[in-house]
Amino acid sequence: MKRTVRTAAVLSAAALVMAGCAGGGDDVQPSGRATAEGGAVVVVVGASPVPHAEILQFVQDELAADAGIELQIREFTDYVLPNTALAEGELDANYFQHLPYFEAQVEEQGFDFDHFEGVHIEPYGLYSESVDAVEDIPAGGTIGITNDPGNQARALDLLVDAGLITLAETDGDPTLLDIEENSKDLEFVETAPEQLVVSLQDVDAAIINGNFALEAGLNPAEDAIVLESGDDNPYANFLAVRSEDKENEAIVTLDELLHSDEVKAFIEERWPAGEVLPAF
């Protein structure tokens, strides 16, 4: 069996895009230290642009005022800076990650974080610009895959479900080194998750996170040649906070709003094909 791993020298996008801020100025401090006009408590939340920031904007527009909070939504274009900003106190909470990624980051970086329950699921998909079906991926073909350990195991599981590889038994999350059978002699190209859409034209197929697929105009439910099931999916995205703020009243209120019937209906109406799924 031939198993080749080629690491793409792609730097993670370090740019932080601050957009969609609801009310107030950029100098507003995290909740508990600032109130908006009218007495609402400001909650500063970091989020991926799609779908997280859209969901938060719905909460701000439709639900927050009656609940006594005001959201400032700061958009991040990668998976590293939102946790750094949370740890450094620039944010009250962030909303972009699932449990396996969260746990890997807490262990690796030593973050003192906690989290609430899942809000939504973005099914992981395998995409291609050159083939329309898994069986058409050529022998010796290239597959783009994330270099993020918290998501690489998820990507490998998708390839197993697609019948492209098998994995050896492991004590922890599998990596590329745990591929046991690779009948098509596929070559795996590791790159930063936010770069996988860009690299899609250079590979036969790539496994792309749902939020980055949506931002690039891909519809996971329609464009993926293999799509992860939403049933019993352990990758629900949730609100993460510093442990000391887990019982902060304003943040608890935000999480309650994120789990409201109104938000569930918004997700189902905004993404009717199942490209984003409520997790509650």
Question: Overview of this structure, please?
Answer:
It is a single chain. The chain is of the alpha/beta class and 280 residues long. Helix content is 30%, strand content 23%. It is built from 9 helices and 14 strands. It has helices at 49-67, 81-87, 99-109, 149-161, 196-199, 210-215, 220-223, 249-258, 261-270, and strands at 4-7, 41-47, 69-75, 93-98, 113-121, 125-127, 142-146, 166-167, 179-181, 187-191, 205-208, 226-227, 237-242, 277-278. The strands form 3 sheets. Strands 1-10-7-11-6-12 form a 6-stranded mixed beta sheet. Helix 1 links the parallel strand 2 and strand 3.
Q: What does this entry show, briefly?
A:
With 280 residues, the protein is an alpha/beta fold. It has nine helices and 14 strands.
